[in-house]
Design a protein that fits this description.
It is built from eleven helices and 13 strands. The protein is an alpha+beta fold and 345 residues long. The longest helix has 20 residues. The structure holds adenosine-5'-triphosphate and magnesium ion.
């Protein structure tokens, strides 16, 4: 009991992990140098909330922040070269939360600021993983018309990136983001990479066994056809993140998709299942158009990915209820279609 109190008090006094603080300061200074800014640093505060850590210029310290400080931890003063900056450090930069994990691989800070009338974003890796993948994707996709934010500077050691800030005219709901993705982003994107057929067995492993998949399908009240294990699926370079949360619309109307750090070679059903939840018919139409001729029917591919996604979640100690609802919605769409019977267009 005593040690719990001591731990609580320690994390109240030091709410931000040392690693996060060091990485934030180093990246802030290096990014300023890379942009040839002649800024001197100015005082900011990192103040913890129950979810993450917010960044504000010290002069904006409101009574509300003082109150939050009493509960979640003492605000931490920090000198930042991007000024005045606002932003956020992800939940695992909080000492209290990170103490529950043995190793923090991924956590970021996002800072927003303006210099010379230009709005910019500094994305910093606060943990072990670098931004190599995101930098590579943003550079490759820069050839697309505004699909990704432009890189203004990148760390040679891949720890941070300075991006153009997308001033989105308005916030879109998930369904509208799915629609814009399917109509304006996905066609050109998958034409660029192309799709390749790979065996379903590549998605299975020691815990995602055929048996477990079939049980999961049963649990979700969807059907997998007899021959599902011997079929092939369409693979490409996927975004891998939350597509229906990461689309911003530029002031001139072009959509921009953010956050490519999870991009990888994977079944495209992983990305398409996310939009399928909100736009089932449009997704099937699009998927059927780009799918290779000898792969499994697209609804079956989505059913396989859904079972895998649902099974993987069950290994976690804490499951987000929103993501369970999402699986149920996808399952209901698939059941309504009859996963077995839907073929290619
Ligand atoms: N270039 C940008 N222009 C405008 N807003 C941005 C930009 N980059 C990031 N953001 C905002 O910051 C949020 C977090 O950025 P991003 O998703 O890249 O980081 P993250 O660490 O992966 O965050 P999360 O874990 O919440 O997805 C975005 O959802 C978006 O609202
Ligand atoms: Mg993100």
């Amino acid at each position: 009991m005593k040690s719990k109190i001591a731990h609580w008090f320690y994390t109240w006094k030091h709410p931000v992990t040392d690693l996060a603080l060091e990485n934030l300061k180093a990246a802030s200074r290096a990014a300023d140098r890379a942009l040839a800014g002649n800024n001197t640093p100015s005082p900011h505060l990192l103040y913890p909330t129950n979810r993450d850590i917010r960044v504000r210029p010290q002069s904006n310290w409101s009574p509300l922040v003082r109150l939050a400080g009493l509960i979640y931890g003492r605000p931490v003063p920090v000198e930042l070269w991007q000024s005045p900056a606002t932003g956020i450090l992800g939940p695992l930069a909080r000492s209290r939360k990170s103490a529950r994990k043995s190793r923090i691989a991924k956590e970021n800070a996002i800072l927003f600021w303006q210099s010379d009338g230009v709005s910019r974003v500094l994305k910093i890796s606060l943990a072990l993983r670098s931004h190599a993948r995101e930098i590579r994707m943003l550079k490759t996709l820069a050839a697309f018309d505004g699909l990704v934010p432009q890189i203004e500077a990148a760390d040679p050691n891949l720890r941070w990136i300075v991006l153009e800030k997308i001033d989105s005219a308005r916030q879109l709901g998930a369904s509208e983001q799915a629609e814009r993705y399917l109509s304006e982003i996905a066609p050109g994107y998958f034409r660029f990479w192309g799709c390749k057929a790979k065996p379903v067995s590549r998605c299975l492993d020691a815990t995602i066994t055929p048996n477990a998949m079939e049980q999961e399908a049963h649990r979700l009240s969807i059907e997998l056809p007899q021959d599902w294990q011997s079929g092939t699926m369409d693979w490409s370079i996927t975004h891998g993140g939350g597509i229906c949360e990461e689309i911003l619309i530029r002031p001139d109307g072009r959509p921009c998709l953010l956050d490519w750090e999870k991009a990888t070679l994977a079944p495209i059903g992983e990305d398409l299942l996310q939009v399928f939840e909100h736009q089932p018919e449009m997704t099937l139409q699009f998927f059927s158009k780009i799918s290779a001729s000898d792969t499994l029917p697209v609804a079956t591919q989505l059913a396989i990915i859904l079972c895998k996604r649902s099974l993987s979640k069950r290994k976690r100690t804490k499951i987000n209820p929103k993501s369970i609802r999402s699986d149920r919605t996808c399952a209901a769409h698939l059941a309504a279609l009859g996963a077995k019977t839907v073929g290619k267009a």
